[in-house]
Design goal:
The complex is a heterodimer of chains A (about 850) and B (about 260). With about 850 residues, chain A is an alpha/beta fold. Chain A has 4 domains: about 20-40 and about 470-565, Helicase, Ruva Protein, domain 3; about 75-90 and about 340-470, Rossmann fold (3-Layer(aba) Sandwich), CATH 3.40.50; about 115-325, no CATH class; about 580-820, Ribosomal Protein S5, domain 2 (2-Layer Sandwich). In chain A, the strands form 10 sheets. In chain A, strands 1-2-32-31-28-23-24-26-25 form a 9-stranded mixed β-sheet, with helices on both faces. In chain A, a hairpin with a 2-residue loop joins strand 1 (about 1-5) and strand 2 (about 5-10). In chain A, helix 24 crosses helix 28 (about 795-820). Chain B is an alpha/beta fold and about 260 residues long. Chain B has a single domain, classed as Rossmann fold (3-Layer(aba) Sandwich). The radius of gyration of chain B is 18 Å and the shape is globular. In chain B, helix 1 (about 5-15) crosses helix 2 (about 35-45), helix 2 (about 35-45) packs parallel to helix 4 (about 85-110) and helix 3 packs antiparallel against helix 4. The chains are: A alpha/beta (about 850), B alpha/beta (about 260). The interface of A and B includes residues 185 and 195 of A. Strand 7 (about 180-190) of chain A pairs antiparallel with strand 3 of chain B.
Chain lengths: ~850, ~260
């Protein structure tokens, strides 16, 4: 084994395949002995950014916390803000009250913390008192006497007028007669109305006199009747004034009491003034409800006294009860029990949840509402504090994102509905006064969401200037080991799970490195770590263990693999049953085992696939069959183009490449992408050109550049294990193994059974840095070094490839000379021999 | 039981003690005539009193309607319309039906049986003709609650009971006893007039703000009263209770053809 640069090259020893965490480095017997970590592991950058965002009081410095799923974003921020918010001042209370002048625009009033409920209760008590006090005062002797006097006076004037007319009529033997609907004038004789036959028997002159008299009196009666409305109007005016005077007397005392209690709040005082004026104007509401209770006196009889409408037949008590709603107080933000600033997490950030809504009641087929039906949203509750939102959930809710931006730009919360935004409803609904907003919004999301918003939404950068990016991994060193152990301890306490012994901690740490896909790093995606701890706890409890040890952690890992491994098993079964053809022994020309990773949900596994190459004479074209049938993604196509470049550089500098080759992933029908198989494809091609068989006991992964350097790929552990599992199930021969890029050695965290097999010499992992090194292992033949003239030894792989290509050139030139070049099956009609650049 | 209820039952008790068993309620085309039901309900509910409603179609209206120049001035709308026979009959029928319905509802609430008839004539005369021993006649023209205070000279006073007695009647007579007991039960002062004319009674009633006027039937049958009877009935502002001869035994239940059980 050599070292090239910083990489190990060659056959890897077992200890290079998995970094072990030594439990003996831990100076505890149980994580229960460990304190909580001082800081969240590895998130110093994010914490600094969160602190900055929270501190920065300037406009636009809301926070976006970005990180992968299960990175622990929410817990980190919640923990940080809860501590901080607890030391801040609790914000003000907010109420909505009736706007008596414009009822559809309720007014918002801000009150000091805790006084909102006080105000609401005080108003309710005051109105209750008035509902008793006002009827009492209007039932008082004094009021009745004065009202009676007014009625008497008007009544007297009316009576006098009628009396006067009556006397003048009587002087002429005419009487005022009450008819069913009014009054009539009737001639009388001996106190009785003149009968028609008696009247007819009178002399004509007498009859005419009577008619004349009646006509004259009717005119006077008409004048009196016309004058009555004016008297009535004066009476009503006098009664109204009387009612206002008494109402004021009843109301003033109660309201003055509240004025004193809220003397320091001008908005409240203004509202109390408005309430006072409205109560006085609507005193009949208070009296009606009292009169109705005592109205049995008038059962079945209409009594339209006309005196300010004190009594009305047929009023519904339910409607009267609702009339007092105008004086209620809708306490929408109550911080009386709050300790510090609010930290509000809106789980479902719909438009209504965010900015509040106005509810409606169905009454007799219509939808009705008033200010008491205003409901607060998360922005109201978080006003003066912090609002935590999941960005994906927010963006998926119609209108919510726009509403949030509007609120932040305008620094106010305005309640609006989707129908308001779309102007769907033209009916008058409530338009509550907006409430000034001072809140720090924290959005959580994945990096992709942040970048997308940054690039596509011009408002975003102006509103979310503070970004806190979560780390996924932390360097694995002594300090991080200690902190990691403390983190485990903290989670155990938080989740109330058993604590770990040092072996358990070590196992978790190795698993964290495996999750990080890097032997030099530890994953700090707290969500996933917590899952492992919980599942280990499950197995430990099942075993009756007090502490969780390495065996429980391994059991948890194995069980999870088992639960998720159905597709993997089906895939392996297909290979083992030779339905999918993958050789693990023997050797073949132009055929190699490539490796790929399949991800299904949270579970990934490696799988070998046969790659084959076929070659012929042509014009220097390397055909990617996957790409031709649109099963190959762009990265895969790039890889094939790169290996074409390699061929050109190595073998086509001075002479054109007369080659046509095709590469394919055999029995692959689901699409291929990525360039991690490009080295395997190149080996396959070289094997086909050199007619050198490749050992099928090997699988290969690694991308290649145009100079033949093998480059790092992802998923190296899963790929190795995928091939190992097949070989294991078929029986390890001791000649099998995997070629991996040397740059990936640091990522190796293989399963213990793989490591054991390598240790026992039954399986091998080779770290490769160049194509030449790889082809030597695969074919057992030297790759060959060029001499000063660039020629390779004849028996080397490179030499044999070069010779083959020369033969292609010679044949082609001969055929072209004969004019037969178009007959080759590998060329398009009319194609000429090129400088080797592939056509596609 | 409210104070008003209590007073009603007391009146009923007083009526029973003095031997009265049936209450005749007079209705006519005056809307206020139906206000008699408010006190009658209390009396009927608490006492073992039968109810008889009589709607009197005033003959004078028919006579007036037959005259060629009759015009009716509508109080509510201040319009004037020709006052003819169809108009009278239509308007009277409306009032009659309203009175019947009101009495029916009241009787149902009070769980009492009642009768209802329509008679053409003059109000008080007709009611007096219909009365027999054991009957009390009640009619009303007031438009305010019967149990409230009165405003006399600008002051609020307890509206008294005004009782008119025939001359030379002694205080042990049932009518006198009735008046005294009613006033006592109501907690109101009792004002007695003896042998007064209708005008004097009306004037006195207005001046003292009488809540209740108790009149003896026999007095109303005399000539001076007969001339003033209907005018008095039309103009008096109080509840009028006319007491006839008290019954010595329970009355027969065969009162009229319009019997409507509760």
């Amino acid at each position: 084994m050599d070292k090239t640069g910083t990489h190990l090259v060659g056959r890897l020893p077992a200890d290079a395949l998995r970094r072990r965490c030594d439990p003996t480095v831990f100076q505890f017997t149980s994580t229960a002995e460990l304190p909580d970590p001082e800081h969240v592991l590895g998130q110093e950058r994010a914490i600094a950014a969160i602190e900055f965002g929270a501190d920065m009081g300037r406009e636009g410095y809301n926070l976006f916390v970005l990180g992968q799923t299960a990175a622990g974003k929410h817990n980190l921020v919640q923990h940080f803000l809860s501590e901080r918010a607890g030391k801040e001042e609790a914000p003000a209370d907010w109420v909505y009250v009736n706007n008596f002048e414009q009822p559809h625009k309720p007014k918002a009033i801000k009150l000091p913390t805790g006084r909102g409920a006080q105000f609401r209760d005080a108003m309710a008590t005051m109105i209750d008192e008035l509902r008793t006090a006002i009827p009492a005062i209007f039932d008082s002797e004094e009021y009745r006497a004065r009202r009676g006097s007014i009625n008497e006076e008007v009544g007297s004037q009316q009576e006098l007028a009628f009396e006067d007319l009556r006397k003048r009529a009587e002087a002429r033997d005419i009487r005022l007669v009450r008819t069913p609907a009014g009054i009539a004038l009737a001639p009388v004789r001996d106190g009785e109305v003149l009968k028609p036959d008696t009247f007819e028997a009178l002399p004509e002159i007498t009859r005419k006199e009577i008619e004349q008299d009646i006509q004259t009196l009717q005119q006077e009666l008409q004048k009196i009747m016309e004058h009555m409305p004016r008297l009535e109007k004066e009476r009503r005016r006098a009664l109204r004034k009387l009612n206002q005077e008494f109402a004021n007397y009843a109301v003033k005392e109660s309201i003055d009491e509240e004025r004193a209690a809220f003397a320091d709040l001008p908005d409240v005082l203004a509202h109390l003034d408005a309430v006072q004026a409205d109560v006085i104007d609507n005193v009949h509401l208070f009296i009606m409800q009292s009169e109705l209770r005592e109205s049995t006196e008038f059962t079945g009889v209409s009594n339209e006294s006309g005196d300010g409408g004190l009594v009305q037949e047929g009023s519904m008590p339910a409607m009267l009860g609702s009339s007092f709603r105008r004086y209620e107080t809708n306490l929408i933000v109550d911080n009386s029990d709050a300790v510090g600033a609010p930290v509000v997490h809106a789980g479902k950030p719909s438009l209504a949840e965010l900015v509040g809504r106005v509810e409606h009641l169905a009454q007799m087929g219509a939808l009705v509402t008033d200010f008491t039906l205003i409901k607060p949203g998360a922005l109201h509750r978080a006003n003066g504090g912090y609002l935590l939102l999941d960005s994906r959930a927010l963006l998926m809710q119609p209108f919510a994102w726009d509403a949030l931006k509007r609120a932040l730009w305008n620094r106010e919360v305005r309640i609006e509905s989707a129908s308001d935004i779309y102007s769907l409803a033209s009916t008058i609904s409530l338009d509550p006064e907006p409430i000034p907003l001072q809140t720090k919004v924290v959005l959580f999301g994945e990096p992709m969401t942040y970048y997308m918003l940054s690039s596509l939404d011009p408002d975003f950068q102006g509103l979310f200037k503070a970004a806190a990016e979560m780390e996924d991994v932390v360097d694995w060193n002594a300090a991080s080991e200690k902190a990691f152990a403390q983190q485990i301890a903290a989670i155990c306490r938080q989740e109330e799970i058993s604590h770990f012994d040092p072996t358990g901690v070590a196992a978790v740490m190795e698993q964290a490195a495996r999750q990080a896909d890097d032997a030099e790093k530890l994953s700090i995606r707290i969500g996933k770590i917590s899952d492992l701890l919980r599942e280990s706890d499950y197995w430990a409890r099942k075993a009756g263990a007090d502490l969780i040890g390495a065996e429980h952690v391994e059991q948890a890992v194995a069980a999870r693999q088992q639960r998720a491994g159905r597709i993997r098993e089906k895939s392996q079964e297909a290979i083992l049953r030779d339905i999918i053809l993958v050789d693990t022994e023997g050797e073949k020309v132009g055929q190699i085992n490539g490796l790929s990773v399949l991800s299904i949900g949270d579970f990934s596994f490696g799988r070998p696939s046969r790659i084959s190459a076929s070659i012929g004479m042509g014009v220097g074209r390397v055909l990617d069959i996957e790409r031709e049938v649109e099963l190959g993604g762009p990265l895969h196509s790039k890889g094939v183009l790169i290996l074409s470049g390699f061929l050109r550089e190595r073998f086509g500098r001075e002479r054109p490449l007369a080659l046509t080759a095709s590469l394919v992933f055999e029995q692959s029908y689901g699409g291929v992408d990525g360039d991690s198989a490009s080295s395997a494809e190149l080996y396959c091609l070289l094997s086909a050109l050199a007619e050198a068989p490749i050992s099928q006991g090997f699988a290969v992964t690694g991308s290649v550049n145009q100079h033949g350097a093998v480059q790092a790929i992802g998923g190296v552990n899963e790929k190795i294990e995928g091939f190992f599992d097949i070989c294991l199930k078929r029986g390890l021969t001791g000649e099998q193994g995997v070629l991996v890029p040397a740059a990936n050695v640091k990522h190796l965290m293989l399963r213990p059974d793989v490591v054991d097999a390598v240790q026992a010499g039954r399986f091998h992992i080779h770290a490769i840095d160049t194509i030449d090194r790889g082809i030597e292992i695969l074919t057992g033949t030297a790759a060959g070094e060029p001499d000063d003239e660039g020629n390779y030894p004849d028996d080397s792989i490179n030499g044999r490839v070069a010779q083959r290509l020369e033969r292609f050139i010679a044949t082609r030139m001969r055929l072209e000379a004969k004019g037969e070049h178009a007959g080759t099956s590998n060329t398009q009609s009319g194609e000429k021999l090129s400088d080797g650049r592939p056509t596609s | 039981m409210s104070a008003a209820d209590n007073k009603g039952s007391q009146i009923a008790a007083a009526m029973r003690q003095t031997g009265y068993r049936r209450l005749i309620l007079g209705f006519d085309h005056h809307e206020e005539s139906r206000t008699v039901l408010s006190i009658a309900e209390h009396v009927a509910a608490t006492g073992q009193i039968e109810l008889a409603g009589i709607f009197v179609e005033d003959t004078e209206l028919f006579e007036l309607a037959a005259l060629p120049f009759s015009t009716e001035f509508m109080i509510k709308t201040r319009r004037r319309q020709s006052f003819d026979l169809p108009c009278v009959e239509r308007e009277l029928r409306t009032h009659m039906l309203a009175s019947h319905a009101a009495l029916q509802q009241m009787a149902r609430r009070a769980h009492r049986s009642f009768s209802f008839r329509t008679v053409r004539g003059r109000l008080l005369r007709t009611l007096m003709q219909e009365a027999s021993a054991g009957d009390l006649i009640m009619l009303r023209r007031a438009d305010k609650p019967w149990h409230t205070t009165a405003i006399v000279g600008g002051h609020s006073v307890h509206a008294p009971v005004l009782q008119v007695l025939p001359p030379a009647v002694d205080e042990a007579a049932p009518l006198a006893v009735l008046g005294q007991q009613i006033a006592q039960e109501l907690g109101r002062p009792l004002i007695r007039l003896t042998g007064s004319t209708a005008e004097i009674v009306e004037t006195t009633a207005r001046e003292v703000g009488a809540a209740l006027i108790i009149l003896p039937l026999e007095l109303l049958s005399e000539k001076p009263w007969q001339d003033e009877l209907e005018l008095f009935a039309e103009r008096v502002p109080s509840t009028v209770l006319i007491a006839g001869i008290p019954a010595q035994r329970r009355l027969d239940s065969d009162m009229s053809k319009d019997y409507s059980p509760a």
